[in-house]
């Protein structure tokens, strides 16, 4: 993502596309939108362009977790907003929450009396074949585990 963001930024600078667009439409402001990995690229490009375009806004749909450190996330509070749908875990997964989830799984497996392959196989089977209601319950359990993350990946404020 960092390489893609650097490439996009470089192409924007080399082409003068933004300067030319704003020469014709001076009252417009710049908005960057991205989804999933594109949201990660949009967040990073936005950080680089913010100095030149003070009215810049970024809307990030389902950005990857763990994208920004605390300082960078703090810098984005005024101009970037992340939108995460329902029980989507990927945007909530930062390094801290992944390590915590791993520790929780390892602890549960250690205390479990069943064969580990059976726990894994039955768990996968249930997730693949259960109804939505059960998945919502599983999602709320995962959300509870992940809520303890130290900081959000991208600011939720505009």
Summarize the structure.
This protein has 158 residues and is mainly alpha-helical. It has helices spanning 2-15, 17-24, 37-49, 70-75, 95-111, 116-129, 132-146, and strands spanning 31-35, 57-61, 80-83.
Given the C-alpha coordinates, what overall shape results? Answer: elongated
- The ordered string of helix (H) and strand (E) elements is HHEHEHEHHH
β-strand number: 3
Question: How can the largest sheet be summarized?
Answer: 3 strands, parallel
**DSSP strand content:** 5-15%
Ordered list of secondary-structure elements with their pairings:
Elements: H1 2-15, H2 17-24, E1 31-35, H3 37-49, E2 57-61, H4 70-75, E3 80-83, H5 95-111, H6 116-129, H7 132-146
Parallel strand pairs: 1-2, 2-3
Describe the structure.
With 158 residues, the chain is mainly alpha-helical. It contains 7 helices and 3 strands; from the N terminus they run ααβαβαβααα. Helix content is 55%, strand content 9%. The radius of gyration is 20 Å and the shape is elongated. It starts with a helix and ends in a 12-residue tail after the last helix. The C terminus is likely disordered.
Descriptive tags:
mainly alpha
């Amino acid at each position: 993502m960092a390489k893609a963001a650097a490439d996009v930024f470089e192409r924007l600078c080399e082409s003068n596309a933004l300067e030319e667009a704003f020469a014709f439409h001076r009252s417009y402001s710049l908005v960057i939108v991205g989804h999933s990995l594109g949201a990660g690229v949009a967040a990073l490009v936005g950080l680089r362009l913010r100095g030149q375009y003070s009215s810049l806004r970024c809307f990030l749909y389902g950005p990857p977790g763990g994208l920004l450190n605390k300082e960078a996330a703090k810098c984005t509070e005024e101009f970037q907003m992340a939108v995460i749908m329902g029980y989507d875990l990927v945007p909530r997964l930062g390094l801290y929450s992944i390590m915590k989830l791993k520790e929780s799984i390892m602890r549960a497996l250690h205390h479990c009396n069943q064969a580990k392959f059976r726990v894994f196989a039955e768990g996968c089977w249930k997730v693949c074949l259960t109804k939505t209601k059960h998945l919502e319950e599983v999602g709320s359990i995962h959300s509870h585990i992940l809520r303890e993350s130290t900081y959000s990946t991208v600011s939720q404020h505009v």
